[in-house]
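Translate sequence into structure tokens.
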Amino acid sequence: MRLQGKTVGILVGPGYEDLEFWVPYMRMLEEGAEVKVIASGGGEIFTSKSGGLTVESQAAAQDIAADQLDALLVPGGWAPDKLRRDQHVLQLVHKMNEQGKILGFICHGGWVAASAAICKGKRATGSTGIKDDMENAGALWVDEPAFREGNLVWGRVVADIPDYCRELVKALS
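Result follows.
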């Protein structure tokens, strides 16, 4: 249990990508981390992009301080497009980045990083659908399954979740 004593937040919103949320969520638990589900509002229930799974948020982004978390993960799907419009989400991501905390982005999750203005001059990946957005935010686009760039951990797409989870565990260990 390499992540015993660590607290990992996972952002969620409407239309989140099931596997990009649930697999890292379970992987963090498997390694002993405490996991908090965070959204724009606490106690909200969200349905996944496929419509098959739901999750309830435990806390609102505005009620979470960066120093309460060791890491924050942002799964893809449609949720990042909604989350990036919430100033509390962006402030949390920005503050965690300033503190050098681990931030994980997979697929469309990079939209949140772009809107939080934390990508300039850094390597990034995700779904090719966000490549232009990431480059316009100053990121250096890389077509790799998963990697760590400083405190940022990147994953490309669903098929790359195993590589992404390995990078997350290694970064938090």
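Note: The two ends are 10 Å apart (CA to CA).
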